[in-house]
């Protein structure tokens, strides 16, 4: 059974609940969360129920502080020394106070951004029997599709499926990537490497170092492309698409779709990341 009251009993406390078997049965389907939705499931399985579901329905706090989210415009930083210095100062301030900032006019074409989102959807929305061939938990594969990398260790699973592909230091053979998204993955990765190097230069200068300092340390050598897919959820008050976490890389560059939902923790308060209408918007999380 699945608890549906405002304060349901967490599955781990239910008698005779074999979580390990339920996790394995779900994983063995190789169809992920999208497979549950395609099957017409009406209730969230116990493995996805988060223990602090009561927080999901908490009404907005009228006294909540309204923050001005850091937005950094990269246009012209290579041509105007004064503007370049201003941007470095903004990167320094945002990194120190937020650990996160949005960038616009970063040079990645809007068409590439939109096609990357479309490519991710094409992969995750293709026929399950076709998609199964990519399902694995072996991270040595050129392309990995599964749901929840920490499925067997996390207290509760997140309501999402993910594709994972290391793009550097060694680029994958395009033939090793799924046809619905291979071309755009290669193109998008090319632009992201350029943007990443530019950001490493700005971060180096923000630290008072030579622009190439972080790149010379090898910080820009690796590059992993993750695409998260969040199917519609029948009981969103019981689960999360992505639970709170901190990434373990040098920094993460995020591309949101039109749905939003991204939050960052700032001054002990969860702050919604605005969907900036300007073209070429990106978010950078400094870890």
Structure notes:
This protein is α+β, with helices and mostly antiparallel strands and 287 residues long. It has a single domain (11-286), classed as B-lactam Antibiotic, Isopenicillin N Synthase, Chain (Jelly Rolls, Sandwich), CATH 2.60.120.330. Helices cover 29% and strands 15% of the residues.
Spell out the blueprint of helices and strands:
Elements: H1 19-29, H2 32-38, E1 71-73, H3 81-97, E2 100-104, H4 110-124, H5 128-131, E3 144-146, E4 161-168, H6 182-206, H7 213-216, E5 223-229, E6 251-254, E7 263-266, E8 269-272, E9 282-286
Parallel strand pairs: 1-2
Antiparallel strand pairs: 2-9, 3-4, 4-5, 6-9, 7-8
Defining key terms:
single chain, 287 residues, alpha+beta, Jelly Rolls, three-stranded antiparallel sheet, 7 helices, 29% helix, globular, disordered N terminus, metal-binding, metal ion binding, oxidoreductase
**What's the total number of strands?**
9
> What pattern of helices and strands is seen along the backbone?
HHEHEHHEEHHEEEEE
β-sheet strand percentage: 5-15%
Assign a percent range to the helix content: 25-40%
Catalogue the unreliable spans: 1-9
Strand order of the largest sheet: 1-2-9-6
Mean pLDDT: 89
C-alpha-based Rg, rounded: 21 Å
Q: Name the shape in a single word.
A: globular
Helix and strand content put the structural class at alpha+beta
Task: Give the N-to-C terminal Cα separation.
Answer: 40 Å
Largest sheet: 4 strands, mixed
| CATH H-level superfamily | B-lactam Antibiotic, Isopenicillin N Synthase, Chain
CATH topology: Jelly Rolls
What is the C-level CATH assignment?
Mainly Beta
Question: What is the count of helical runs?
Answer: 7
Pfam families: 2OG-FeII_Oxy, DIOX_N
Family: Belongs to the iron/ascorbate-dependent oxidoreductase family.
Keywords: Iron, Metal-binding, Oxidoreductase, Vitamin C
GO molecular function: L-ascorbic acid binding; metal ion binding; oxidoreductase activity
């Amino acid at each position: 059974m699945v608890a549906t009251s405002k304060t349901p009993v967490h599955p781990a406390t239910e008698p005779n609940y074999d979580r390990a078997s339920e996790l394995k049965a779900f994983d063995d389907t190789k169809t992920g969360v999208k497979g549950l939705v395609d099957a017409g499931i009406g209730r969230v399985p116990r493995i996805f129920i988060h223990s602090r579901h009561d927080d999901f329905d908490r009404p907005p706090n009228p006294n909540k502080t309204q923050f001005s989210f850091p937005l950094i415009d990269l246009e012209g930083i290579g041509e105007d020394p004064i503007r370049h210095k201003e941007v470095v100062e903004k990167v320094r301030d945002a990194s120190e106070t937020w650990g996160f900032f949005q960038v616009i006019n970063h040079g990645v074409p809007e068409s590439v951004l939109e096609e990357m989102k479309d490519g991710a959807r094409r992969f995750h929305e293709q026929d399950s029997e076709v998609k199964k061939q990519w399902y694995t938990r072996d991270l040595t594969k050129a392309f990995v599709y599964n749901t929840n990398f920490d499925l067997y260790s996390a207290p509760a699973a997140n309501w999402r499926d993910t594709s994972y592909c290391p793009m550097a230091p060694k680029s994958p053979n395009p033939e090793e990537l799924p046809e619905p998204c291979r071309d755009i993955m290669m193109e998008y990765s090319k632009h992201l490497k350029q943007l990443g190097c530019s950001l490493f230069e700005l971060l180096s200068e923000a630290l008072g170092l030579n622009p190439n300092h972080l790149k010379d340390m090898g910080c820009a050598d690796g590059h992993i492309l993750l695409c998260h897919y969040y199917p519609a959820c029948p009981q969103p008050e019981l689960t999360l698409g992505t639970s709170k976490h901190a990434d373990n890389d040098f920094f993460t560059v995020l591309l949101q779709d039109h749905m939003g939902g991204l939050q960052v923790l700032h001054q002990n308060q969860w702050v919604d990341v605005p969907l900036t209408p300007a073209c070429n918007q990106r978010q950078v999380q400094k870890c």
